[in-house]
Design brief:
Length: about 650
């Protein structure tokens, strides 16, 4: 299912041309236009129909912000092409703590990207097939599993699989917008199915004035800013591009910005023209026939497709719904590329477990992919794959990273200007510094707005998760640094000096082939002292063992430890420690006979005492624990050479 293993030398063959990089890294911002307009309308209709006239102005502000952010990140791509993106910019220019804030925010947001995108895609499937509503969570989890499998096959292969749906979605939306606006210019404006419904405002929002009205508009703006999610992914994925990497990445980012702005502006304009009315609670709609609680509202893009292409049974409607569902589900692929790569860089810098820097069979960061999938599935299950519930946790991390990244870029250009003497380059540096400064100010304001409007609605969970991640990464870094300092060689002569004596102990439970092999192996070491050690739990078994020992004339002395409470581990550990106390400069080598079996369930039947003993003895200084294996017949099947080893430990490649 994953495909044949790839050699490390084949890494260059997995690099992406721009036509594949666009659907891989830009599927999230491109797909966000499918629900960004809807999020604006859902907030404005809290006050009824009276405030829908703010929609074009809010959309214009989102478009302007998107343009500034895209221009800003093009500078990041050129200045920091190693793939760290916002994390690297913040770390180098604002310090490690700021870099970790960005990293923690992005990791949380990548998980949210998968959850929100998949849940939104399932919503669009349900809009076309309402009978699927009862299988919402199951469908969402199934799509995450499919995305995980595709990404484990490698970046290039996932790009090939996801390119066609992305381009179909872009083409379908542009055709829908173009057709709808052309009809509007001809005097035949499309009318949505919800245009005839009125909206009963929330009691608190019926007659908003002053600060309350400002807060409603700001809340709608912050919801519409979901259109910006995933914009930074290209700056994180520069190493995956073909050479010249920075140039290709910047071109791809520009193309993404132009397409996203065009589609978002077109969908919003068409929604205003078609008079789409949508609410969080269907019972707010007035004029409905029948029971409002059982009425299922179609998404904004579904209503637009039906109004433009001639109804819910038209080919155009099903095409748009199918393409939208696919792109929304595949939008999670942006996170499946960004999250593992960021985890790999953090692991390289010792902020996350080193296993996240390992590449799998297909040269993808498999451990990061699986970790992302597991976190997203937990979120989808916990929130029942409900977009409205999940969306409040979204975009907070994006704007945290936007703000800190652009602030870091301002410092970067200040540093460049201090050493640059060429007047032409100085003018260019000042211009891009202004762009980054503008981006920092605007995204900082949006971050404040998002916090103010979404914090109590659920965004606090994202903040708590980011803080926990930040603390965890600091703890991991401290552990790795302390371990490295403790293991560093200061005086090799002390470590290379041999011990005074080697005292060997062979653990014995009964006399059988594994015991005799362990005794022979221990004797081959030629220790200064060798003894066999057994614990007397049962007196009859002890006497039988001593008699067999004498009958076989084993030259190794047998020591018997009394255990009135039938313990095995404690008497052995206490005995070994007593030897160490008597001779601190001696090394005690403990030989443990073990069975090697071929079936996982057989391990449950053997070696449990050995496992506990090893676990305790490994914490005793000056004690070496040596396992002496005895292969049972069932282990022969596990000794066949494999074509590849899926569980093998692999090292990751450092970002270039």
């Amino acid at each position: 299912m994953i495909g044949r293993a790839l050699r490390s030398e084949e890494l260059g063959e997995t690099l992406l041309p721009k036509r594949l990089a666009l659907p891989i890294f830009a599927s999230d911002p491109l797909s966000s236009v499918a629900y960004a307009t809807e999020e604006i309308l859902l907030v404005l209709t809290l006050g009824g129909l009276a405030y829908l006239h703010f929609t074009p102005w809010i959309a214009a502000a989102v478009v302007a912000l998107l343009a500034v952010v895209v221009l800003s990140y093009r500078q990041v791509v050129h200045a920091y092409p190693s793939g760290g993106g916002s994390y690297e910019v913040a770390t180098r220019n604002l310090g490690p703590n700021a870099g970790l804030v960005v990293a923690a925010s992005l990791l949380v947001d990548y998980v949210m990207t998968v959850a929100v995108s998949v849940a939104s895609g399932v919503d669009n499937i349900i809009s076309a097939v309402p009978e699927a509503a009862g299988y919402r969570v199951l469908l969402a989890v199934g799509f995450v599993a499919l995305l995980t499998a595709m990404n484990l096959r490698g970046v290039r292969e996932s790009g090939r699989a996801f390119a066609t749906p992305t381009y179909l979605f872009v083409g379908g939306v542009l055709i829908m917008v173009g057709t709808g606006l052309f009809r509007y210019l001809l005097g035949d404006a499309p009318v949505s199915e919800s245009a005839e419904y009125g909206i009963e405002p929330e009691p608190a929002d019926a007659n908003l004035v002053g600060l309350a009205l400002v807060m409603l508009v700001l809340r709608a703006f912050s919801s519409g800013c979901t259109a910006l999610t995933g914009v930074e992914a290209i700056s994180n994925g520069v190493p995956a591009f073909r050479k010249p990497k920075s140039k290709n990445a910047a071109t791809t980012m520009a193309a993404m910005g132009i397409i996203a702005i065009t589609m978002f502006a077109g969908i919003t304009t068409l929604a205003v023209v078609a008079k789409v009315h949508i609410t969080e609670d269907p019972c707010q709609l007035t004029g409905l026939q029948g029971n409002c609680s059982s009425y299922h509202q179609r998404t904004v893009i579904a209503q637009l497709a039906a109004s433009v292409f001639g109804g819910e049974n038209s080919f155009g409607f099903y095409f748009i719904q199918g393409a939208t569902a696919l792109i929304l589900i595949l939008a999670a692929n942006t996170a499946f590329n960004g999250f593992p790569l960021l985890c790999s860089i953090l692991a390289l810098h010792r902020y996350l477990p080193r296993q996240l820097h390992s590449r799998g069979d297909r040269l993808a960061f498999s451990n990061g992919i699986i970790a992302l999938a597991a976190a997203a599935v937990l979120l989808l299950w916990g929130f029942k794959a409900d977009v409205t519930s999940l969306i409040h946790l979204y975009i907070l991390g994006v704007f945290t990273s936007f703000t800190l990244s652009q602030t870091g870029m301002v410092r970067h250009w200040n540093r460049e200007l201090r050493v640059e003497t060429d007047p032409r380059l100085r003018r260019r540096h000042r211009l891009v510094r202004f762009v980054n400064a503008l981006g920092a100010v605007i995204t900082g304001l949006v971050l404040v707005i998002v916090l103010a409007t979404k914090f109590l609605q659920g965004a606090w969970l994202a903040v708590v998760a980011a803080v926990i991640l930040w603390l965890m990464m600091h703890g991991i870094k401290r552990h790795y640094d302390a371990t490295a300092a403790e293991l560093a060689v200061t005086d090799p002569r002390d470590l290379l000096r041999p011990p005074s004596r080697v005292l060997a102990i062979v653990l014995v439970s009964t006399i059988h082939k594994p015991t005799l092999r362990a005794l022979a192996y221990a004797r081959a070491f030629k220790p200064q002292r060798l003894e066999a050690l057994t614990v007397a739990v049962d007196r009859d078994e002890e006497r039988t063992l001593e008699r067999q020992w004498q009958d076989l004339d084993i030259v190794v002395p047998l020591t018997v430890l009394d255990s009135p409470y039938r313990e095995i581990t404690r008497p052995v550990v206490d005995y070994v420690r007593s030897i160490r106390r008597e001779s601190p400069r001696d090394v005690v080598a403990v030989f443990i006979p073990e069975y090697v079996v071929g079936h996982w369930w057989e391990n449950l039947l053997h070696n449990q005492s050995a496992l506990w003993l090893k676990g305790r003895l490994l914490f005793t200084p000056g004690v070496m624990v040596i396992s002496v294996p005895w292969q049972l017949t069932s282990s022969a099947r596990a000794d066949r050479p494999a074509a590849r080893a899926p569980g093998s430990v692999r090292r990751g490649e450092p970002p270039h």
